[in-house]
Amino acid sequence: MKRWFDKSLQRKLSLLLLVAVVFPLLATGVVSYRIASSLTEEKAKQSGMNTLRQIADKLEFMISDVENMSVFIIGQRDIQQYLDNERADISLFTLNIGFLTNLVFSKPYISNITVLSAYDYPPLSSTTLLRSGLQSQLEAGKSKLDAGMKWWTSLYENQTSADGLKRVVSLVRPVRSTNQFRNLGVLSISLDENEMRRILKNAGWEQSGFVLLTDPDGVILSGDSSEWLSRPLQERMPNLAALNELEGTFTYSSEGRGEDTVLYRTIAGTNWKLIGVIPTRTYTAQNQYVLTVTAVAIGVALLVSVVFVLLFLRRVTRPLRGLATTLKDINPDEAIPSFAVKSADEVGLLLHSFNKLSERIQRLMEQVQQNEAKKKEADIMALQAQINPHFLYNTLSSIHWIALMNKDGQIAEMVGALSDFLRFSLNKGEEFCKASQEVAHAQNYVKIMAIRFQDKFEAKFYIDPKLQDEMMLKLLLQPLIENSIMHGLQKKKGRGHLYVHGELQGESMTFVVEDTGIGMDESRLNEIRGNLNAASGTSSPEPGRSGYGLRNVHQRLQLHYGTGTGLQIESEAGAGTRISFTIPIMEERRI
What we know:
This protein has 591 residues and is an alpha+beta fold. Among the domains are: 61-189, 2-Layer Sandwich (Beta-Lactamase), CATH 3.30.450.20; 335-384, no CATH class; 387-429; 432-533 and 546-584, Histidine kinase-like ATPase, C-terminal domain (Heat Shock Protein 90, 2-Layer Sandwich), CATH 3.30.565.10. It has helices spanning 2-6, 9-74, 77-84, 90-105, 134-140, 142-146, 193-201, 233-236, 280-328, 346-382, 389-405, 409-426, 435-452, 477-489, 522-532, 548-561, and strands at 110-117, 124-125, 129-132, 151-152, 156-160, 164-176, 183-192, 210-214, 220-222, 247-254, 258-267, 272-279, 432-434, 457-463, 471-473, 496-505, 508-515, 568-572, 576-584. The strands form four sheets. Strands 1, 2, 3, 4, 5, 6 and 7 form a seven-stranded antiparallel sheet that branches. Strands 9-8-12-11-10 form a five-stranded antiparallel sheet. A hairpin with a 6-residue loop joins β1 (110-117) and β2 (124-125). α2 (9-74) crosses α9 (280-328) and α3 runs antiparallel to α4. The model is unreliable at 535-539 (pLDDT under 50). It is a multi-pass membrane protein. Keywords: ATP-binding, Cell membrane, Coiled coil, Kinase, Membrane, Nucleotide-binding, Phosphoprotein, Transferase, Transmembrane, Transmembrane helix, Two-component regulatory system. Residues 354-386 form a coiled coil. One of its GO terms (cellular component) is plasma membrane.
């Protein structure tokens, strides 16, 4: 019997399909009738809890972002210098206002950032405050400030010149000197209640239910209606049981609404409670519908399955037998042939997918060849200066010593930096180097440009010490810095700033080159982004023009690290440009 079944796919499918369809359908009908009610309720609760988790994840992201931002702001050198000066400095005041405004600009859920000085200097704020309830919150939390603690305020109102009256809740923390740990002031970052309410409303909650967000004292911070804000939860839901666990579900009865299911979850780091209410009638009304539909569907499916499985089984297996015969004779060393597609069912889709796979394999082979050629071309461009380097080094060394003998320190410094710069650029054709060498190479370039363009910019390097011995592709930072100086800072009236950041993030390294130059408008930014991602063979910027060096770096990153890497460019006209890239740490290249 077993051999008889093994020789025929049609026989095996006939038996398996009849068993797989008839018996499960009968069993499903009986079991579904008995457990539909409890299953519907459990799914409603599970769906509600998943929705709460999604809302909580979004709120926790905002809270985490605010806390990280607060640490970043406190550690800012300009903020520290402004708060720790002997007197208020108007230039630092203006610079810090612009810094805070830029931080808030890209984060719609942040309403305002305010830094209050312990010496009664003018407060730093990302927007003009006409009226604020922050002072009353600070007075209420004075004991926490004195203890050096950070905390979240209750809901209060701010009125600004830009956005009018807004309800906000703020993270407050003291600002201490990074050198002497003296108290310098207070930092407040305010979350917009409208943005929190938008998250709650867009969560897809049941139409007849609602979601609330409360603080640790049980006061409503946000919800479906503004009339309940800053009021105790017990007024909205009298006799509600205490929410002592991190999350949970229970049944709640109230006059006028009947029986509801209450789900709640604690927001990490704040002890806020996210509370969702689902009317029980929402899912109990579905039970009868589920039972009816299940019974009808199972009965019809059972009858149709038994009849049509046997009728169409032969027709289904016929093209499969033809496919098996064709594939059996394929030579694996030859090109995969295409198959004629004569149907639009699953078998037809299988043949169509097989044909697409064959074409895809051929394209990938051609793409690999093109990528190898592009990689060699990019590496040749990066190493094109390797012609008789020792002659160049000796000549620069001679100029360096002549400048020292003539007591011309500026020329000596510039020639020394140029010598180190070229020595690294040539580097015997090596593709990779230590991160510390790449940073030193960029610093030598900055020295040269700082002497060339005196009083045009000031450069700062902030490099994570953990990056020093990590290996990376060479000649990545210098083209980005050159772009910032030549196309951003040089064209700016007055003195600008250049910032280079390097940070180790898990198994990746992130580098950022940021300037306060003239920036770009949206159309120019889109044009440069398009040039970066333009396909091979399309037009590209000419050497020496803005975008050429960026595209070269972008292509080298993708060729060596994969298409998931590349340059990320952000810019605003009149404010400056920020270029960043993230590359993985390659274990085989670690020192």
